[in-house]
């Protein structure tokens, strides 16, 4: 049985009275009914009870809809309260029969056992819940809970003829004393969104699966998908070339149908109607609609079928031709959903008419409609285009159209072969194609569509053309050129599936493996002889440079068995050189600075480093030493290079983190961004594998690396519209240009140190927080503490006592948090008043010394006594609270869930229901037992898991039931997705101080952040706490696996799609995970950023969609994205860091090789600044003034730009305005170039040898087309391959000038197209020549 048939047969609805159906009003009212508990003296302890809910019409004495049955629940008695059976089940339904006589009937059924092992059901009573008031309006839902009185007997008594409405008038119904049902009935407006999926008068539970709805979102344990229903995304289907074939042939079938219909009419008509003629065919109709097993999603479409013989005229039909009913148009189904219970229903009906005799004066005709066949098809939307053949059904079987269907042929009759397939009732055949209208790679199954064998259908025949989703990228726009069916009055606009429009960016990171050395041994010797600091091991012996160890030889056991568990990681940046292939794309920086983050240490922004050339010069590749620049701009006098140290001491690591650190070194890479220290533009990024830092039992290791610093430029997205948008590959690929700018030389070293033995016990790895002993419980040995004076422990009292003793030298220690600013201010005022009283007249004469001292002591004692009386209650309450308080310290890392359990004990001798209150949203109680079990497996905890342990109140606070003296374990989870402000400040990172080159960074102190305190209170009735848990949260920095930088116009939304790499390539992904590829989940640290991902199916890639709101220029927004492979988001496998640079946008339309002039308006800051404009492409963008100039305070000044692009297309150029004194970014612009290709007037082709050489000289001629002399300027798009003999020339009118060309040699074979632009004196293009150079 298919899923559609199972859902259809299980949810058959009894219709209401026919009179109700005629008079019901449009519109339906949705209800939500909660049956909470059954209580009363009539319940038996231990017996099982069931509730049944039905709809009843008291006017017509008729039950309708479908009876809903609850699960069986046992009754429990707790004296003095009567027996109670708790149900807490929610029922949803909607009805349009808004009449006061419509009610819901609740029946209480008891289950009793039989002697044969079976069970019997006994009706114990029933009650009526009115749905509508006297004015046909829904009952007032103001009262949350109501008590429903119950009547003796069975609800079948409502069908008795003497039953009267209302119920109170019936003297035969007796009320069950001291018994009632607690329930809540309210209208439920969110249910109106799924009226097209849920039939009227069908009672369903919130836990029941409704085809077309997504599972419950959020709290999975609740599982109520109807409380806030969410619709599945529809998929559009097209049915083409539809035909219906009937057994044994169309002519015989219709002839037999007419004979039976006429014979039936003769038995029904009256004698006076015998003059009417025989029945004739008028139309053959086919109803096509989408059915979800419960109802039609939309009204079925009606199409007219015609015989095939009428369509094919004049041809030579073959055998069996013309024996089918065909549809000339195509069917468009936009409401299809990829759910197994969704099916396409076909119903074939004939329209007959009977007319009068030919001799009659007036011919009257009457129409008669008969359904003859129907079929259902459950498609597999992942199979793409296919041909489908379905068997038709008929006879006495229940169908979705709720009509009588013409019977199928008897088995005794002879059968024929229809296309080689024995189908007695006929077939419907069509060609299906789907259109998901999504432009990303859609993960749909490649399995073929098939019909179950029991239906007699054959497998679908795949067409020769490929599937519609073969890795294609389609546009979000609809196919506007395709003919749509005629619009109907009931058509409503449907939202298309929302998918991002951007082409996915591959998140593969930088290639960290390319660290090969291009310098010769002599150059390396001169480089290391420049005086860099020596790296010494723990025995003060220099560490020699060694080759990196083969990755295959890495052994985790060697790292664990190493006696030197302390790791001192040293990063030594030596030199930075220009790559030989860099060409002249941009100017080489004079100073640079670096940004990176190692492990969980705060991100580092180095000071500015000057690039200094060596005296001898390096022959192979020019490399310049890195020398630190002081704040005044002078070079540092210390050794060259920059050295940073990170101390990873196991004494500061969390339990088990040593293995994580070793795993981090083995699997991760360090990404380093290189910035221009003057222009603050990104030069490029490099990555180095950290695996050479694994010592593998050695005392120290040191390796030298030469990294490629590459920059990546993304061109704007170019999309296509219209019909081409739905074709495979219609979205043009994103233009990506990667260029290697230079090479960074650095040394990595790891020096082992013996681990310092820390006194005391190691930190406990237990996940269970023990409950406190409680108030008044004293250990066997008693508690010993030294008594101290009140003034020593209370700062406020000490301040009050010292007011009269100004001679006191030493002030008592103040207790933090007690002496606030307001109290200190009041005490100072009191001291001034007393001093004025002492100095005023009328005072008694000066007392002797001992009398004054005695009086002072008496006053002090009075103050102390008064203070003790005032704080006594507060102190006692605080001490009692401390006696029931337990503390747990959590080291929180972004995105990682910290799991622990709290042992909660009921100290009383009676049972209690404990309410758990948490004062911070990041700490939560784990309510789902599946999630609880998942975290226990991860942490290897052996404590038991209890099912259905918690109950949620209306305010969503969990409650747990505790028996007397019972102890249970409450699971907690702390998880934060927002970076703590203190951590953010540490990670934004100021530059290193004066001793940064020799500074040692310790993991235990870095990024500690501000400690957060969270209190959890466990309260019984009346708000009395029985236990308090205080969670101390210490934020820790997190590991950043990859960094992305995006430059975007200010105050606009950035929309990017990033393709996730295969899950098995992610560092930290589990090996051999059962069940195939896991689904990936993402969470963002900024709640204002839309970050989501979708699982497109097995074998398909997965993308992350980001939508970020940019700020004003030059703001930089920083956020993190955590990637998970488990649904409970326990620990991220990767954390990505994103930077969004907001720039002022300037659109420029220009022509390649031609100068376009424009200007920018600069606005001054409140203080005057000395600024300079820098550009990322100085060879294509000129600025005026090109040097440093003074920007007046709050003034306005123009900055003139000249743009001369070298190649056509869309691209970005960055422009920064920098304060040259403080090296701060004042403004930043993003120039969006839309460059056109100039008209090429002449083309040439030459061949040159590849692999070096001297180059080649060539000449071309140019004729001045003007009668007067003209001055021309020459430009080219490849100055690295072509140089001119003269950059400008002047030629008389009509004369010919010879232009000398010098072609540089090329290192490799291939073809290059070089453009030669000839511009006039205004730098406007006159002509453009194209030279095709073939290097061979």
Automatic annotation (TrEMBL):
Task: Tell me where on the tree of life, at the top rank, the source sits.
Answer: Eukaryota
Q: InterPro entries of this UniProt entry? A: Ig_NPHP4_1st, Ig_NPHP4_2nd, Ig_NPHP4_3rd, Ig_NPHP4_4th, NPHP4, NPHP4_C2-like, NPHP4_SK
Show where the NPHP4 Ig-like domain sits.
Answer: 888-1037, 1044-1141, 1153-1236, 1241-1336
> What processes does the entry annotate via GO biological process terms?
negative regulation of canonical Wnt signaling pathway; protein localization to ciliary transition zone
User: Where do the NPHP4 C2-like domain residues begin and end?
Assistant: 522-753
Pfam families for this protein: Ig_NPH4_3rd (PF26015), Ig_NPHP4_1st (PF26190), Ig_NPHP4_2nd (PF26189), Ig_NPHP4_4th (PF26187), NPHP4_C2_3rd (PF26186), NPHP4_SK (PF26173)
Instruction: Locate the region Disordered.
Output: 756-783
Its cellular-component GO annotations read: ciliary basal body; ciliary base; ciliary transition zone; non-motile cilium
Start and end residues of each NPHP4 SK-like domain = 818-883
Protein name, per record:
Nephrocystin 4
Tell me which species this is from: Accipiter nisus (Eurasian sparrowhawk)
């Amino acid at each position: 049985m298919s899923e559609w048939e199972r859902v259809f047969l299980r949810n058959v609805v009894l219709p209401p009275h026919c009179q109700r159906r005629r008079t019901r009003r449009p519109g339906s009212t949705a209800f939500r009914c909660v049956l909470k508990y059954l209580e009363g003296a009539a319940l038996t302890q231990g017996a099982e009870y069931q509730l049944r809910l039905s709809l009843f019409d008291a006017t017509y004495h008729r039950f309708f809809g479908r009876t809903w049955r609850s699960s069986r629940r046992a009754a429990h008695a707790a004296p003095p309260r009567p027996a109670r059976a708790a149900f807490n089940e929610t029922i949803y339904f909607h009805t349009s029969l808004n009449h006061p006589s419509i009610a819901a009937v609740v029946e209480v059924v008891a289950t009793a056992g039989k002697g044969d092992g079976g069970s019997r059901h006994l009706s114990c009573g029933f009650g009526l819940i009115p749905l509508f008031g006297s004015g046909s309006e829904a009952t007032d839902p103001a009262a949350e809970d109501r008590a429903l009185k119950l009547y003796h007997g069975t609800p079948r008594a409502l069908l008795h003829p003497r039953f009267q409405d209302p119920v109170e008038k019936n003297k035969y119904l007796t009320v069950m004393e001291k018994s009632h049902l607690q329930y809540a009935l309210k209208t439920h407006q969110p249910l109106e969104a799924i009226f097209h999926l849920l039939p009227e008068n069908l009672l369903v539970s919130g836990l029941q699966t409704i085809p077309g709805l997504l599972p419950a979102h959020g709290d999975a344990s609740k599982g109520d998908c109807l409380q806030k229903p969410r619709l599945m995304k529809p998929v559009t289907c097209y049915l083409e070339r539809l035909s219906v074939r009937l057994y044994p042939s169309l002519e015989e079938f219709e002839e037999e149908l007419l004979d039976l219909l006429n014979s039936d009419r003769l038995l029904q008509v009256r004698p006076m109607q015998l003059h009417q003629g025989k029945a004739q065919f008028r139309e053959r109709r086919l109803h096509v609609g989408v059915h979800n097993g419960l109802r039609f999603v939309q009204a079925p479409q009606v199409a007219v079928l015609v015989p095939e013989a009428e369509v094919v005229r004049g041809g030579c039909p073959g055998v069996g031709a013309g024996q089918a009913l065909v549809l000339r148009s195509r069917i468009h189904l936009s409401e299809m959903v990829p759910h197994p219970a969704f099916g396409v229903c076909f119903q074939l009906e004939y329209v007959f008419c009977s007319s009068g005799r030919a001799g009659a004066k007036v011919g009257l005709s009457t129409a008669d409609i008969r359904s003859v066949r129907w079929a259902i098809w459950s498609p597999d939307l992942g199979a793409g285009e296919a041909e489908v053949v379905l068997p038709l059904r008929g006879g006495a079987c229940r169908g979705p159209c709720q009509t009588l269907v013409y019977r199928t042929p008897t088995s005794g009759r002879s059968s024929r072969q229809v296309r080689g397939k024995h189908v007695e009732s006929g077939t419907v055949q069509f060609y299906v194609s789907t259109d998901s209208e999504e432009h990303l790679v859609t993960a749909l199954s490649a399995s073929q569509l098939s019909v179950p064998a029991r239906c007699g259908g054959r497998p679908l025949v795949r067409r020769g053309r490929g599937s519609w989703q073969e890795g294609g990228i389609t546009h979000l726009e609809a196919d506007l050129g395709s003919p749509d069916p005629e619009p109907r009055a009931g058509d409503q606009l449907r939202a298309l599936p929302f998918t991002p429009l951007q082409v996915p960016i591959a998140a593969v990171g930088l290639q960290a493996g390319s660290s090969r050395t291009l310098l010769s041994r002599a150059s390396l010797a001169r480089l290391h002889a420049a005086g860099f600091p020596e790296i010494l091991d723990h025995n003060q012996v220099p560490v020699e440079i060694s080759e990196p160890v083969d990755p295959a030889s890495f052994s985790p056991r060697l790292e664990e068995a190493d006696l030197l568990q302390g790791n001192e990681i040293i990063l030594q940046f030596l030199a930075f050189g220009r790559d030989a292939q860099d060409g002249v794309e941009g100017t080489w920086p004079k100073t640079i600075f670096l940004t990176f983050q190692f492990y969980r240490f705060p991100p580092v922004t180095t000071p500015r480093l000057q690039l200094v050339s060596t005296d001898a010069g390096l022959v192979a590749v020019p490399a310049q030493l890195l020398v630190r620049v002081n704040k005044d701009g002078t070079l540092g006098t210390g050794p060259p290079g920059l050295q940073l140290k990170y101390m990873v001491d196991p004494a500061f690591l969390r339990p088990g983190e040593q293995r994580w650190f070793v795993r981090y070194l083995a699997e991760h890479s360090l990404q380093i961004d290189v910035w221009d220290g003057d222009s603050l533009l990104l030069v490029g990024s490099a990555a180095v594998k950290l695996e050479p830092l694994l010592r593998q039992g050695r005392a120290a290791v040191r390796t030298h690396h030469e990294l490629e610093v590459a920059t990546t430029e993304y061109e704007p997205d170019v999309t296509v519209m219209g019909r081409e948008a739905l074709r495979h590959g219609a979205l043009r690929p994103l233009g990506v240009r990667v260029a290697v700018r230079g090479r960074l030389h650095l040394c990595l070293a790891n020096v082992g140190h013996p681990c310092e033995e820390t006194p005391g016990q190691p930190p406990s790895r237990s996940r269970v927080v023990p409950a406190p002993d409680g108030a008044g419980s004293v250990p066997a040995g008693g508690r010993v503490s030294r008594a101290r004076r009140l003034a020593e422990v209370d700062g406020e009292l000490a301040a009050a006592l010292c007011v009269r003793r100004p001679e006191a030298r030493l002030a008592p220690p103040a207790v933090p948090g007690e002496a606030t600013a307001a109290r200190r201010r009041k005490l100072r005022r009191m001291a001034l008043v007393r001093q004025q009283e002492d100095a005023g007249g009328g005072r008694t004469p000066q007392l002797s010394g001992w009398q004054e001292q005695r009086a002072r002591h008496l006053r002090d004692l009075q103050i102390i006594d008064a203070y003790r009386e005032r704080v006594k209650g507060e102190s006692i309450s605080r001490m009692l609270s401390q006696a029931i308080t337990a503390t747990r310290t959590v080291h929180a890392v972004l995105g990682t869930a910290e799991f622990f359990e709290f042992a909660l004990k009921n100290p009383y001798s009676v049972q209690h229901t404990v309410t758990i209150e948490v004062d911070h949203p990041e700490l939560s109680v784990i309510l789902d037992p599946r999630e609880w079990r998942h975290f226990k497996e991860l942490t290897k905890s052996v404590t038991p898991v209890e099912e259905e342990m918690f109950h949620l109140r209306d305010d969503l606070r969990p409650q747990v039931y505790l028996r007397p003296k019972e102890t249970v374990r409450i699971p907690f989870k702390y998880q934060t997705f927002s970076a703590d402000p203190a951590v953010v400040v540490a990670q934004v990172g100021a530059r290193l101080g004066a001793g940064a080159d020799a500074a040692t960074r310790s993991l235990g102190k870095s990024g500690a952040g501000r400690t957060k305190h969270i209190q959890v209170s466990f309260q019984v009735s009346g708000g009395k706490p029985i236990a308090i848990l205080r969670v101390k949260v210490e934020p820790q920095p997190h590991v950043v696996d990859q960094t992305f930088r995006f430059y975007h116009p200010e105050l606009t939304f950035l929309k990017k799609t990033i393709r996730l790499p295969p899950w098995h390539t992610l560092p930290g992904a589990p090996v051999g995970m059962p069940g195939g590829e896991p689904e990936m989940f993402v969470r963002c640290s900024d709640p204002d950023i839309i970050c989501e991902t979708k699982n497109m199916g097995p074998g398909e890639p997965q993308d992350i969609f980001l939508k970020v709101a940019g700020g004003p220029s030059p703001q930089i927004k920083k956020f993190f994205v955590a990637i998970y492979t488990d649904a409970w988001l326990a620990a991220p496998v990767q954390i990505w860091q994103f930077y969004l640079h907001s720039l002022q946008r300037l659109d420029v339309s220009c022509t390649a090789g031609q100068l376009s002039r424009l200007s920018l308006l600069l606005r001054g800051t409140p203080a005057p600044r000395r600024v300079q404009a820098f550009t990322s492409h100085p060879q294509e963008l000129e600025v005026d003034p090109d040097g440093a100039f003074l920007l007046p305070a709050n003034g306005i000044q123009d900055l003139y730009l000249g743009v001369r692009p070298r190649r056509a297309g869309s691209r970005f150029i960055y422009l920064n305005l920098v304060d040259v004194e403080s090296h701060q970014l004042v403004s930043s612009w993003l120039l969006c170039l839309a460059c056109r290709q100039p008209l090429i007037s002449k083309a040439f082709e030459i061949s040159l040898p590849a692999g070096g050489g001297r180059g080649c000289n060539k000449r071309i001629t140019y004729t001045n087309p003007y009668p007067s002399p003209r001055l021309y300027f020459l430009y080219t798009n490849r100055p690295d391959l072509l140089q001119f003999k003269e950059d400008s020339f002047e030629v008389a009118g009509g004369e010919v000038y010879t232009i000398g060309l010098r072609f540089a040699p090329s290192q490799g074979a291939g073809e290059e197209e070089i453009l030669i632009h000839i511009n006039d004196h205004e730098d406007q293009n006159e002509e453009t020549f194209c030279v095709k150079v073939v290097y061979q």
